[in-house]
Amino acid sequence: MSNVVHNRPVVKPDTRQRVLEAIAKLDYHPSRVAQGLRQQASRAIGFLVLDPNPRWPADPLHAEVLAGMSETATKHDYSLLLDRPPGNGHLTARELLQPFRSGQIDAAIVALAGTSDSHQHALDALNQAGVLFAVLEREIEGECAYSVMGANEDGAYAATQKLLRDGRRQIAFLDSTQMWPAIELRLNGYRRAMREAGLEANILISPSPDWTSAGGAVAMHGLLERCERKGLPYPDAVLAGNDVLAVGAMHVLRERGLHVPGDVAVIGFDDFEFARYVDPPLTTVRLPAYEMGKRAAELLIAHLEGRPTSQRRHILPTELIVRQSG
After folding, report:
1. Which CA distances in Å does 312 have to 97, 107, 140, 145, 315?
2. What pLDDT, on a 0 to 100 scale, did the predictor assign at position 7?
3. C-alpha separations of 105 from 19, 46, 64, 130 in Å
4. Number of structural domains, the chain?
5. Looking at the structure, do residues 215 and 256 belong to the same domain, yes or no?
6. 323 lies in a domain?
7. What does residue 54 show for φ and ψ, rounded to 5 degrees?
8. I want to staple 157 with a disulfide (CB 3.0 to 4.6 A). Which of 13, 189, 243, 302 is the partner?
């Protein structure tokens, strides 16, 4: 079949005709992956995600990144491979390298849950293996390594400063026990703004068990109950680690009879599509997740095609989007 598909003259006319009829009947199309393996290139970019949530492809952030990747890959005739390494969160170098070693991908965009220093051994293994990859929201160095990040700390700092300018002083931060490097940076921005305002004693952090709206509700419940137990005033503002947590938090505040933003201002992070349609519309920090996916894919494809850039660390700006919630 391959000789017919590639119109090689070694095939007899009657054989060629039978093969062509079979191809038409089966609607056969050559596999670009298989062709790439023969040519030592798959023309495929991987999206390797370590996320404890099994529904990670439905997460709005991952979806936006993937959409940006897809646009660039399609433009340059590359395919995409999505992969969630197995295991219970303890990533091994072998698992991360497997798609490269099997010839499934030429390069990968990598998103890893955990703190900024977690899984460093696996990233070091990618560097040592000499494979081409870009890491989202983490600093990385290496001959074939790129880092693509949003300005998370600056975004959270700007959001906290906005609340301080509005006269809010009891500002809490909602994060999760399932940490990501980007959330660490957002927390840093919140802490920095509070310290500069002389309000370090007012720093209050409430964790969610996960990154769902239900988790945001748990974090908000826990925050209010902690204030009640200690005889402290309720927070007059909340900065959530992402928009999903913010929505859960606003639901709890309404249940408690608290008005948003009159009693408690709420600011999210990411500016997911739904943010403008919740009640009240959510003030949030826009993270250019779609552009991050595009940028990462562009960097990898340019490198694969012999046009590597000397700039390996790319930080895309965030923007505070003011609506009615805070």
Report:
1. 21, 15, 8, 7, 10
2. 52
3. 30, 6, 21, 14
4. 3
5. yes
6. no
7. -65, -15
8. 189
